[in-house]
Predict the structure.
Amino acid sequence: MSFLLLIAGLPTAAAAAYLLATSSTGASLDAIGGRELMVQLTYLASSVLFILGLRSLTKPDEARRGMQLAALGMVFAIVGTLLNSEILTYSWIVGGLVLGTVLGYPLGKFVPMTAMPQRIAFSHMFGALAATLVGVGEYYHGIQVPDAAGIERFKMGAIGFEVLFGALTVTGSFMAFGKLQEFITGRPITYPGQNFFNLSLFAAAFGCFVWLIIHPESTTVFYVMLAIGFAIGILMVMPIGGADMPVVVSLLNSYAGLAASATGFAINNDVLIIAGALDGASGFILSIIMSKAMNRSFGNVIFGAFGSTVTAGAKTAEGLVAKSISAEDAAVQLAYAGRVVFVPGYGMAVAQAQHQVRELAELIEKNGGEVKYAIHPVAGRMPGHMNVLLAEANVPYDKMYDMEEINDSFGETDVVVVIGANDVVNPAAKTDKSSPIFGMPILHVYEARSIIVLKRGMNPGFAGIENELFFDEKTNMLFGDAKSSLTKLVSEVKSL
Amino acid sequence: MTATQIIQLYVFVLAGFVGFLVITKVPPLLHTPLMAATNAISGISLVGSIVLAGGQYGSVATILGFIAVVCAMTNVVGGFIITDRMLGMFKRAETKSGPTDTTGAGGAS
């Protein structure tokens, strides 16, 4: 890694040396060239460091160091930009950088891991707002300032894209943040003609966009497009339920990246184009993975308003009785089990029970049992949500298994403990064609020898679908808050 | 379209391709840190914001630029700190041949 650092750092150092050499000889024309060269080389270095940083995330052991390199890349980009010859006053810049640092530090340092989905949604909003404001500023500068040179079409296209995508990401992320923080209801909000209305708004925004490319000087159209962009963000996320948030948050991640990339086109800056394209690709891939894990298309997530109504024809639980189990009995079962798999879900995050899970797992391991964690791609409210929570509770990452890795071994598992997960273990996804989640890949928990489900009560999960697994004869329900149930289990196992 | 703009499109497409190849290899284990990381990197809007805030484009542009600098810098600082914090938590299990076992067998001889 230090070798790579050297490669990335070299051009910067070379450029600095060149700048010093040219500026000391006082060759004024060359000095501008040297400065520009240095700026471009710092941007090149930061682009390389960003790619290396993201690449390091493919290996958990190297990830931390790699991301520190990416942070260094950001420092390069900032320093390079500060050398830009167009900058005449630094007071606002310094003020903004200081204020941003003051705001950003606590957002990075103190936000708990359980609040991570809303924290990420919140920062998408900030990133998109920055891109949108730059777009508006560029437009204003190019059109509305007296004697402005105007904006040529390619640049107008870039600004239009930037502002439209930026604006809808700002309000869309705010809505996602609100739903995850639960000051806006997590249930889908729908009304008749919703999809038609949203599509017309999209069409109107697209119309404005095309109009602006032909007539960049139409300021009213520009601000109307901006307003429509903000409206689309709100209206688009409104009908999407909490369980679909992983797709939405990933998609907004992609949009924020694309808006940044468009900024790069608008202001002729390659590092913005590259970083934006990387972010755009990342968000896009994540949203595809999430959609696949729910067996649904993008269009279905965005226009489907899943979970608002219980689909007629889906099996109901009438006449079925779930078996309940006491903490004492469950503890006995766990204490002498050879192979145990924990399946965490959003309920674990809500109860913040990850530390108790780890404690229980350590006790089982002490008794000679083997413990694994099975994590469904859409468990929780964002990609990788469960992994981060378990890692926070000191669960080693080599005990966390993806769905594909673990699905074949449920048959040899003595006890599966489902903690606040529902739809991702619902066998109806495999067996019941009328179920709305039919076809969604699930964890094959039903193959295990016995199953303990930790759950608050018998109400159906987020998708509003009954879960046959809970009525399986191998299944025992341990009702109550996940955290207190696990605490009880821990003390019971200890006292055995 | 100018030659520069054509090159910019090349840069965009190729960078997107690199992003695609790299990110498809990131394991689901690290998807949340990946999102936090791309969030921090999207703070690169800072580059545009700084020029807008510091160039003499009139007071409207300066104020818009200033707000944009604050937003982008918040993402950069918060994003990289939180990514680092998260990645610091991902640890391997201590191997069974821990330091206490090996010192007796291998260390003495």
User: Anything to note?
Assistant: Chain A has 18 helices and six strands.
